[in-house]
Amino acid sequence: MIQMETTITPISKELKDKIKWICEFARVSYSIEEGSIVDFKGTNIAFAKPHILKVNNNDFLIFEDSNTIYINGYDKKIKFSELISYLKK
User: How far apart are CA 66 and CA 88, in angstroms?
Assistant: First the structure.
């Protein structure tokens, strides 16, 4: 049987501060779920789960050190710099 091991990847203070500043400036309430790495033991398969910013029933998927934010899945994406204008809509 394949065993799955999940390791939480803490969000950096810098990224957390950026998100906090943007959400406060846009005047929206938010929550953040930290990402993780899921490893399937005995295989060479693993995947990274991004940090998830939850605002107004939307999930913004954020990877550490990436300038791209995915909205409610991987179909729609915006640049990190566009997040504040997207939240103000």
Answer: 22
Two tokens, residue 66:
């990436």
Query: In the sheet that 46-49 helps form, which strands lie side by side, from edge to edge?
Result: 4-9, 35-40, 46-49
Q: pTM, whole model, 2 decimals?
A: 0.88
| Domain extent listing, the chain | 4-88
Q: What angle do CA 3, 36, 23 make, to 5 degrees?
A: 155
Q: What digits encode the pLDDT tens for the residues 1-31? A: 789 999 999 999 999 999 999 999 999 999 9
Distance between CA atoms of 2 and 15, rounded to whole angstroms? 34
